[in-house]
Amino acid sequence: QVQLAQSGAEVKNPGASVKVSCKPSGYAFSDFYIHWVRQAPGQGLEWMGWINPKTGGTNYAQKFEGRVSLTRDTSIAAAYLGLSRLTSDDTAVYYCARAFGRSSPDHWGQGTLVRVSS
Amino acid sequence: DTVLTQSPGTLSLSPGERAILSCRASQSVTSVYLAWYQHKPGRAPRLLIYGAYSRATGVPDRFSGSGSGTDFSLTISRLEPEDSAVYYCQQFESSPLTFGGGTKVEIK
Predict the structure, then answer these.
(1) pLDDT tens digit string along B43-52?
(2) Total Cβ atoms within 10 A of residue A90
(3) Which of A2, A3, A39, A45 is most worth mutating to test chain B (most B CB atoms within 10 A of its CB)?
(4) Which residue of B has its CA nearest to A45?
């Protein structure tokens, strides 16, 4: 059974950084890309980027270039989203999702709420 | 960026009725790169349709996708109470991957 388990909710001050983890199970970690998508309160879904766990290669949405970092640790089969210089606009639920190569993400994590507030 | 415009914003229908959701792209999207998702509050999005027409595993056959080029549709043939959700189209042909703004389906 495919599952993507994400880390728990975070509360951060403006200007801080956050790191969210995603630990898939039920399939070979390196065989599927990991995408990150967020949803701000009352808003739609917004794609942030993907990482190829096999090579470490990444592709970021230009909006987040310079602030986002997608990494992975193949030794423990985990993927990470790092986001720096947080503002209140970054308050959102962050999802990881897997996709086989260039295909639509088919399994998603449960989401991680990141709240940015002073 | 490829902008996806979904309409209507909200659809309020009774059980058993048919819902037709529209997704219009700002530039042509190859069908294989168009997907539809169902999203319920507090849940992870669920892949319904991939490649514009193909149902994902476990998706009931009352859900169907159609369209090509810049105009795509998701049809729910006989609405059931559990179909209440927001539905998003997504393209992944060009970067950045983009989602439509969503259509909220309400069951009366």
Answers:
(1) 999 999 999 9
(2) 21
(3) A45
(4) B99
